[in-house]
Every structure is written in C-alpha cells, then in structure tokens.
User: Fold this.
Amino acid sequence: MQQALSKPPKLCQTIPPRPINNVEDFTILYIDQNKERDLSLLRHTVNFIRIINDPNTLATLLTACEDEKYIVVMSLNQAESILLELQQHKCIHSIYFISQETHPPVWINDYGKVIGLYQNVESIHGHLIKTLSHLSSRVISMEITSKDTILNLPFTYRQLLKEIILCEDDKSDLRKDMLAFCRIHYVDSHEIDEFEKSFADTHSIQWYTQNSFLTKILSRAFRTQEVDLLFKMRYFIQCLHKQIQSISIKESTVTYAILDVEQETIEKFQENINGLVLFGSFLPTTFEPPTFNEYQNKDTQQYLVFSIRLGPNCAANIEQLRSSNCKVDILIDIDTVFRVVSMDENENGIHTVYLESVSHNDSHFQQLTESLRKAMNAPVVILKLTKLFLATDHYKEVDYLTELIYQDKSFENDSTLLTSLAAAHHLLGNVDETNTNYEAARYQFFKSLRAFQLFLPYNHQVLSSTYNTIGSMFYQDDHHQCAIHFHEMALECQLKASDPDPDAVAIYSTNIGAVYIDQKNYIEAMKHLKRAEMILEKVLTKDNAKHLISICQRISNCFWRTKEPKEALKYYKKTLDLQLKLPNVLPHPLSITYYNLSTAYESIGDYDQAVICAEKSVEQLRKISETHPELKENQARLEIVRQKQWLKQALFS
Assistant:
C-alpha cells in the first residue's frame, strides 16, 4: 500500500502543501539580486517572507500564486527592469523601495502600487505596523445573486460552507487541534501560550479585535476561503459566533462599513438590486457613516460604502468588549444574509449600497440553499464538507483537506473520525470512477484503506468492500493479477470473519471468476463461480436472483469455451429457469438464452430442440421490434438448424 501511495496518479490535479508560516493575508516578497538583508524585523509584522534572487523566476511565481497578496520590498536600482511586471499582477498589493535617495524619481509616479522610498527595513516595518491591520479589515470577500436566480452554486457553496464550519463537532477537540495548527506556523509564540492559558469563550471579541495571530489567520481564511484554514480555525470561529449571539442586539439598527472592491463588484451590485448578498466573514461596522479623508490613497483601489439595516439578533455592540485600538462599534455575525435594497453615487463618485438583513427562512434564500443542504446531510463535519465540495466541483479542496487531516494525525486515536475520513476518500474515489479515471480512483481507495488500518487489522471484515473496490479498479485498467490479488484479499476478510456475509462472499468469488475468464483460465474461473453459485442457491432471494443468473451464464460460457457442450447446456437451462421465474422478465435476455440453448443443442446433435429454441429466440426479438438489429442473425441461425433437422430426418427416413 505504501508503494501505491508513494506518488499521485498521472493527470491528478492537487493543491500543494501549505508552506510553513504562510497563513496570513499578506506575504513579503523580497527581491534582491545582490545581497541578503536582515528581514527578521519584518516577520514581526508579516509572518511569511519569500526571497527572490533571480527576477527571471518572478513571473512564474506571481502567476502560480493568485490567492496571495504580496508586499514587495526591493532596492530602487532594480525597479525599472521589473516594475512593469509587478504592476500587472493583481496579487501585488504594494511596493516599497529601499534607497538612500531622498527624492523618488519622477517615473515612479506612473506606478500606483508604489508606496514610497525608505532608507531601511526598520522604516518599512514602522509603516506596515500602522497600515496592515486596517487594510485587512477592508478586504472582505462576498457573493451576490440576482433576485430571479434559484441556482447559484458559488453563493450556495459559500453559505453552506459557513454553516458547516459553525457546526459543533463533539467528536473532536477543536481547541487542541487549532492550537497545534497555529504552533506549526508560529513557532515559540508567547501569544499562543497566553491564549492557551487564559482564553474563555467570553474573550472572543477581544481577541478578534486586537490584531492577534487569530485575526491574521482568519483574515486570510475569510478572504481566500482556503478550506484548511477554515477547518482548523473553526473552534475560534464558533466561539466568536456564540459570543455575538449571546449579546446580540435585539432591536433594528443601522450601521455602516467601507470596503475595498474591484469595479466588477460595483457593477454586480448595480445589476442585482433586490438580490441577496453574503459576506465571507464577520463584518466590522460603525454607528456613524465613514469619513473618507483617512481612506484616501494614491492607488487606483475603489471603495464601496455600505449602509446596513440590521434586524434583531444579527450583530453585537462591541464597544465595551473590543480591544483599545479597535474602532469597530458593531460586529455583524458571519451567518447573516442580506438583500440589496438600492444603490446610489454621490458627487465625488463614491457608491453607497443599502442593505437589509434577511431571515434564513426567506423564500429566495431557501430556494437557493435547501436542496444542497439536504444532499450534504451527514453525521460528521468532514463528511458534510466532502459532500458539499464534490457537489460544487471542489474536488481538489477536499482531496487536500483529507490528506492534511491524515498527515497531521489530528484524528489518529478516534475510530469514528477515522471512519469518516475513510468514507470521504471513498466518495472521492467514486467521483474518479465515474470519470473513468481508475488510477486516481485506486489512489483514493488506497487512502481509505490507510485510514481504516490505523485502527483495524489488515484482514478485518470491514475492509473487504474496500479491497474489492480496489480490485475492480485494477480490473478496469486490465491489471488482472492485481485485480485477483485484491479480490482475494476481500474474500479472505469475509471467510476469516466470525460471521461472514454470504452475499459478499458470492460477489467477491464472482469477481475473481470474471478476471480469470478474461485471462482465458476457465478451469480456475469455474472454481470461484461455483462457490458463488452454491452460496446464492442456499439463500436465493428476489434481490440476488439476477446475480445467480449472471453466474450461471458465466459458468455455461466457461464450459462452452472448454468444449464441454453438455455441461454448458445444463447451465443454459438453469439460466432459463431462473429467468422465467423473474416477475418482469425482459424479452432480450430471454432471446440470448434461447439462442445459446440452440447452439448447445445443435452441438450435441439434438436439432429438434435446437429449432425450438431458435424459434423462441426470434419470437422474443420480435416482441421488441421487427427491425431489431439481432433479428437477421437469429433468423439465419434458425434456417441453419432447420436445414440440419431436415437433413437428419431425410437421412434417417
């Protein structure tokens, strides 16, 4: 199994593992061909720093990292050669130049993302401290849908993802899991030590508003919707949600927010008056409309002002709970849904969107979400997520998350959660099988087996189904020996169990026989097929009658191939008897069986019976259509056996 999992299958698209420390909204991109600088001071502001010594690799990096927001730090003497490249990428947020010059060159004014010239890293650090937390709070993702739409997968996905993240999972120690994840990315963090020692649910708002490690991670998680961050941080998300609910405002309230947006977002609001909108995070707002002087910047970033009328229980007044540096008055809960009431533009070109909160019982909201909400119903969060991701074409995300969970061992001692992890891999494998990517399907089923074997022996009865499925995937790719091996492992799991499942034994035996038939090893195939036949005859039911018919057809085929027509005839007859006992037997399968009987009778010289069966084969096809494509062949067979019947009668007379 380790060999099978040693490398992903060909054509398998995956999300690469998260680099250590890369969990915040911003990344420092330091570009310098000549020398390294001491950047440790910047890590107090931004946790992850990428260093580029070769500008030729810059375009590749920027194209591959669409979700990143880079703050570029570089020497001014390199600017002219790469500044145009930097300006073209959306992932570049701002550019700082290190230079001893006191006045910037005139050409820099043509590049809106340039912040300015700084003499050293310390001065850049000081500027970032003043601006970063403020910038993160103004970049919030959102989904908008029109008033007439009843199918909008991005909107529905975003809403149901939030609902799942807010689901309490009694089987997991979410707090321990979150802190373990944070310590990987913030080594020796005294802030995490303090949180572990003193945090209580009632401190959630204070921690969220003090620009802590929690706020930095969540800022990125809410903007990018990266599933590993949301999954690992859901303990704190749930705590914050519960605190807001516990102190929520009970009367209608109007609050305001200002957010950075693209022109495309402004146009979406203009086009979707009376539509619904979701924000990807908790939404910080104020009682007073924003003043714009403090927000002015020389870049081309656009803003939207939101005037929001809130109903009861949507938000909390946090004036007495926020940290001292925070200016937020009202924190709106993450699960709040809004309707776009109207939109206007003032003389300065600033757009204001008027929103009102709506109930989750709103008929439009229910139309958008209820069907998929029911489809993703499952007892465990990881299975809910898996169903949601696969239903909304997020295969890579759930594949990444399940592998992360296994690698960090957060489920290691919990058989219930490991079982759900195994089930998630089965669902992924089913998708690959449906897409006929059997190699990728095997890879997922092997991962399912890997999860099971953390708490079950390799030959446990529960694993038989997974072994059998892996065997079937090998069979689909014509890897016959591997297929036999895994079908036999599935059979062994059942035969060694204290209470084996007869139907499972019959199915696995049939599968082994089918592979041997493909290998033209008919003698070995019949050993397994007759075992299946014997079991099903003892427990024959309506449900397995068709399976028994299939087995008899295969056994008769084996006898025919080994030139034993009398034995083949016996199983053709048995097939016919079983078919005729079915409640709604179809004419085409009967036609095939009568045709086979005719060939068997002909082979042993019984032309009278051969003619009778050939006639019945033609008769069954005519029940379907007088122009059935097999009718001509069957009529030709009928004429052949009639001639042989006549010739025999003539000779004997």
Notes: The two ends are 70 Å apart (CA to CA).
